[in-house]
Hints:
This protein is an alpha/beta fold. The protein folds into two domains: 5-201, 2-enoyl-CoA Hydratase, Chain A, domain 1; 205-253, no CATH class. It has ten helices and ten strands. The strands form two sheets. A six-stranded mixed sheet has the order 1-2-3-5-7-10, with helices on both faces.
Amino acid sequence: MVDTLKYGIDERGVATVTMDRPDVHNAFNDDLIWELNRVFTVLSADENVRAIVLTGAGKSFSAGADLNWMKEAAHYSKDQNMRDAVQLSEMLAAVNTCPKPTIAIVNGAAFGGGVGLISCCDIAIAVEGAKFSLSEVRLGLTPATISPYVIAAIGARSARRYFLTAERFGADEAKNIGLVHEVAPSLQEAFSLAHVFIKHLLGGAPGAQAEAKSLIATVVGKEITDELRTDTARLIAVRRTSDEGIEGLSAFLEKRKASWDGPS
Length: 264
């Protein structure tokens, strides 16, 4: 298989994953989708990994689906198209449900599925000049597979505009609608800002962070019922007596770093 991405893990346990198809603006094809799914599954299970940074090689973050791949898919059977769609869905789910904190560094254009990938990350930083578009309707398609993640990021109101117009918008608007959290003047400064976030992330307990991510998915959109209040009370009660809970409180009272708070 042709290598479509690169990744490495530094001494802090921070993994950097780089989509590596710059000649086609890191567009998705079968190989890249499979590799992203595989790598995020591997990193999710690696106890030494504390955080994951995702970016693209070259001038773009990701142009979404590879046009040559889509051209081939137009001649696929219904079952073949369903298989491909499910593979994309599984890849997005692997990123979205990754128990490690994830940071997207949007180094350039992000269209279609690229916007979906950003939406699956916990924190997103865009470089000034990055362009975004949910461009599917111009191709006679819909952003169906990415829609749960994009709508969760930008809300239904913004989705009603950008899903339908497919217009391009810049980094400041991406921040305004909630797709990205910060805008940096250069790629170097985007990575510097990511390291600030990483410093904060390394100060948190890994298990607590994983549970916090799961907690958001459990609570979002739910009515505050007696059952929900009881369930969330139970979660904090269990965590207080966990190894991380005991260590964290002890470190705070003893004015020392917790055992998980490594070099930044």
